[in-house]
Structure formats: C-alpha cells, structure tokens
Specification:
It is built from 16 helices and 5 strands. It has 382 residues and is of the alpha/beta class. It has 3 domains: 3-160, P-loop containing nucleotide triphosphate hydrolases (Rossmann fold), CATH 3.40.50; 166-219; 222-374, no CATH class. The protein has a 5-stranded parallel β-sheet, sandwiched between helices. Helix 8 packs across helix 9 (195-203). The longest helix has 43 residues, at 273-315. The protein is globular. It starts with 10 loop residues before the first helix and ends in an 8-residue tail after the last helix. The model has no long low-confidence stretch (mean pLDDT 93).
C-alpha cells in the first residue's frame, strides 16, 4: 500500500507528483487547491512522505510512516484550529526552514491552511519562498488560488484537485474501512464527494442522525414558529457538537499548562502562569468559535443539497439524488415551489453563510433570517 492510496479520484494529480519525485517538474514551492473534502492536505502530506522516501512513497518504510503521522524530523506541518495563522507562527516556520535537515532528503514545510494566513504572515512567508534554501520544499494548501496572495501563488507550482465521484468514494470506504456497500453508497452520495465527511457518515450513526435532522427541515418550514424553532435547534445542536469536539482538547491543554508551570506539584501559581492561561483561554475561545462555524457550515451544505435535488427533479434530470432516501419529500418541495423559488432559497443559504463567515453575524441571527427565507407555503386542503 503506497502513500498515494488515500487520494481518491485524483489520478492526474498522483501522476504529476510521482513524476516530481523523480525530478521531472520538481519545484521548491507547490500550491494544492481543490474544493472542501477533495483531499488537499492528504495530497500534500502524501507528497511530503514520498519526497522523504527512497522509493518515492512506498508507504511501508519508516520515512513514509513517520511522515504520514506528522512525526518525521524533516517534516513540519502547520494547521490551525483558529480563525487565522499569525505572523509569529510563520516567522518561526521560516526560521526552521533555514536549518539544515536531519536526513539527506531535505526539509518539507506543509502549510495546510494557507488561506488563513494574515497579511503580515503572508509577507513573512513570501520572503522565504522568494529566497528558498536549497534543501527546503514548501507545500501550501488552500481552497482556490484566489485565497492566496498573488505574489505567493505566482512562485508556486499549482496542483488542482477535483471532487471525487460518489462511486469512487464508495469504493474507497468499502476497501479502506470495510463499510457495507449500501451504507458506503449512502455516505458517498450524502457527502457530495467530501472524503472526511463520507467517512464520518459511514462510521458514526450520530452523524447520520444529525444530518437527517437537517435535510428534513425544508418541508417542515411552513410557519414563522417552525422557522424560529429550526434556527434555534440548529444553533444549539451545532454548538453542542462543537463543544463536544473541543472540550476534551481544552481540558488536555489546560492540564499540560498546569504541569508545565508546576501548578499541580507546587500547589501555587507562578507569576508567569496568569498571562499564559489567559493566552490559552483566548486561543481556545477562538478555536471553539471556528469549530462551531464549521459545524454550521457543514449543515448548510447538507441543506443546500435538498434544494439542488429539487431543481434536478423538477428538470427531469437522470440519475440518483444526493438525498435519494428523501425522494418523496423532495418531490413535495417541487410540487409546492417553483424552481425559481428554490434557487432563491439556495441564495438565502449562501447569504447566511457569508454573514457568519465574512461579517461575523451571530449564527442564531443569521439562521433565523435564513429559515424565514426558506419558508414554504402551506398547501390548501382543496
């Protein structure tokens, strides 16, 4: 099993990266782009492992295993749970990139969230990419090329990943996770090609139940009360899920901080402890906010898929729906609304997303406004 096996439906990308490992088309800086779930970070990490492997990514040697696990001494991996990556973190990364590698195959610096670099951080990174050290390769990941500073992307070789098909994702789940074929097919369709989301839906019944709640909303939004309740319920459910995911990590970080400052052993708090604790709590609060927004964003993607299905069904398009198991409810949405109305509803979902992610509108307010725009008219008894 090679390092490339985790890249689903990306054969042209794999061919390009394999060729680069042999010296054909190699560059000191690469930019991996692609839609959410396409595997940008996985592709960058697989490439990093292949660059450290004497056989170009065999998957079984120590270099491959440690690189994929993120513990290889000549691999530095930057990812953030916060809203942005600051200049201090990038400056530290640049300093490390200038050090001599431990092994003989050079250093690889992977920045998984290059779209979250602040302006100052971008400028610090630009200098390192403009004047690269001979033994360092930079791998940046972002959703699109427009998410990266033009002066940075112009110095990188572009690798564009595509959304894998439902069939490819389904086969991957059966092969890698042993998921039964019917469940794998459902997860592949429902995830719309997002590998991580497909894996979660295939392996976690709670995730499937949460999704069913979201995709069942459109036909229930028939009154003001139903819209307000739906907004409140979705806000609470995503907040609860975000807190569950971050709570354990927060507690572990707090315990590590206490141990580092000797709070547990000494029974007192050194002077330096208070500012360190304040900085940790601020970072955790930022991470919790981002995680909550990520959970809401995922739900909005699921919600949009229902209206997409309604448009396809109204147009008589062939093939299965994303929400094939809800075909009856989608048909009801088609009967009660025009295609133009469903297009406006998709616009309303995108507007809510923009309000939360770009303009910092509280999720509950954005979702209340959105749910009202999604309201469907009651059908008369006659």
């Amino acid at each position: 099993m090679s390092v490339w096996d985790s890249l689903v439906g990306q054969r042209p990308v794999v061919d390009t990266l394999r060729a680069a490992c042999t010296g054909r088309g190699m560059s000191h800086a690469w930019l991996f782009t692609g839609p959410p779930g396409s595997g940008r970070s996985n592709a960058a990490l697989a490439f990093a492992a292949a660059l450290q492997c004497a056989e170009g990514g065999c998957g079984g040697c120590s270099s491959c295993r440690t690189a994929l696990a993120g513990s290889h001494p000549d691999l530095t991996r930057v990812r953030t749970e916060r809203l942005s990556i600051g200049v201090d973190e990038v400056r530290d990364l640049v300093r490390r990139s200038a050090l001599a590698p431990v092994g003989t195959r050079g250093q690889v610096m992977v920045v998984e969230d290059a779209d979250r670099l602040t302006e100052q951080a971008c400028n610090a990174l630009l200098k390192a990419i403009e004047e690269p050290t001979e033994s360092t390769v930079w791998l940046l990941c972002a959703p699109t090329v427009e998410d990266v500073l033009p002066t940075i992307r112009s110095r990188c070789r572009l690798v564009t990943l595509t959304t894998p098909s439902a069939a490819e994702v389904s086969v991957f789940l059966v092969r890698s996770e042993g998921v039964p074929e019917p469940l794998a097919a459902y997860a592949a369709r429902a995830s719309q090609g997002h590998i991580g989301r497909a894996r979660a839906l295939a392996l976690d019944e709670d995730a499937r139940n949460r999704r069913r709640e979201v995709v069942g909303l459109p036909v229930r939004l028939t009154s003001l009360g139903a819209c307000m309740t739906a907004a409140a319920d979705l806000t609470a459910a995503t907040q609860e899920e975000a807190e569950r995911l971050t709570g354990e990590l927060d507690a572990r970080e707090k315990a590590d901080l206490d141990a580092a400052y000797g709070v547990v052993e000494r029974g007192r708090r050194p002077r330096e402890y208070a500012p360190a604790l304040a900085a940790l709590q601020k970072a955790q609060k930022t991470r919790a906010k981002r995680r909550h927004l990520d959970m809401v964003d995922r739900s909005l993607t699921d919600l949009t898929s229902v209206y997409r299905d309604a448009l396809l069904l109204a147009a008589g398009a062939p093939g299965p729906l994303v929400n094939e198991e809800l075909r009856g409810e989608v048909a009801e949405l088609v009967r009660s609304s025009s295609p133009e109305a469903n297009l406006r509803r998709i616009d309303a979902v995108f507007a809510a997303r923009e309000q939360m992610l770009e303009f910092n509108v509280p999720p509950l307010l954005a979702l209340e406004s959105m749910m009202l725009a999604l309201r469907v008219p009651r059908r008369s008894a006659g």
